[in-house]
Design brief:
single chain, alpha+beta, nine-stranded antiparallel beta sheet, 8 helices, globular, disordered C terminus
């Protein structure tokens, strides 16, 4: 069995229904939609043909299948600038056979093959209103943009105990897709300029991205 992926798709909010319907049409039963906001600079927006519109993040668990990614790229026109970005993150396990059958709908998965991973997804958790501070630091270290979503935090008491700071409840979750070689400089810059002991109180971690679609312009492919 090839396992499963968490598929993350970011597009303009106006396309959320179209994209969600496509995933469901592929037999994917659960598609979570989260409202977000783009953070790209004017230069990057121009490069990708994007407008500074509100974004939507779609999350779903899918069979591990490069064919599914290629089909999404074709059917959703992700090679067209401004349509969106799709990435997959490997899922290591799903709790229970019933849940696994529901999420994957007994679809056939592809054999897992070791391949070079050129991108990572950096996830930054920061105080509300500090997205610009985080993204300024990230861009200075090579990031091209990101997407932020509003979140509610917990664990304030543990933060005081282990970090020596009081963490605000209102938080922002920032997704930054970066080339693997840029991950470390970006994370170091964010933690140096907007880390836990700054006003932003940011925490950052990264996860590997196994497949990607919609970044042709940034990657310099023709």
């Amino acid at each position: 069995m090839g396992g499963a992926n968490l598929m993350i798709t970011i597009t303009d909010r106006s396309r959320s229904g179209e994209f969600a319907a496509w995933f469901q049409g592929q037999g994917i039963p659960l598609v979570l939609t989260v409202l977000g906001q783009g953070t790209a600079t004017t230069e990057i927006l121009d490069c990708l043909g994007l407008e500074a519109t509100e974004k939507v993040v779609l999350l779903c668990v899918t069979p591990r299948s490069a064919r599914l990614v290629r089909r999404a790229a074709k059917d959703l026109w992700l090679d067209v600038p401004g349509r969106g970005i799709l990435m997959t993150v490997p899922v290591s396990s799903i709790g229970g056979a019933t849940a696994r059958d529901y999420l994957l709908q007994q679809q056939e998965t592809e054999e897992s093959m070791e391949k070079e991973r050129n991108h990572e997804l950096i996830i930054v958790i920061t105080n509300q209103g500090c997205t610009d501070k985080v993204m300024d630091a990230a861009r200075a270290a090579g990031a091209t943009g990101g997407t932020s979503i509003h979140a509610k935090g917990t664990g304030a008491e543990l933060a005081r105990k282990f970090l020596g700071v009081s963490i605000a409840a209102e938080r922002e979750l920032i997704f930054i897709l970066a080339r693997t070689e840029d991950r470390s400089p970006i994370m170091k810059a964010v933690m140096s300029q907007a880390g836990i002991h700054s006003a932003a109180q940011s925490l950052a971690f990264s996860v590997p991205v196994s497949d990607i679609a919609g970044l042709r312009q940034l990657d310099g492919e023709s």
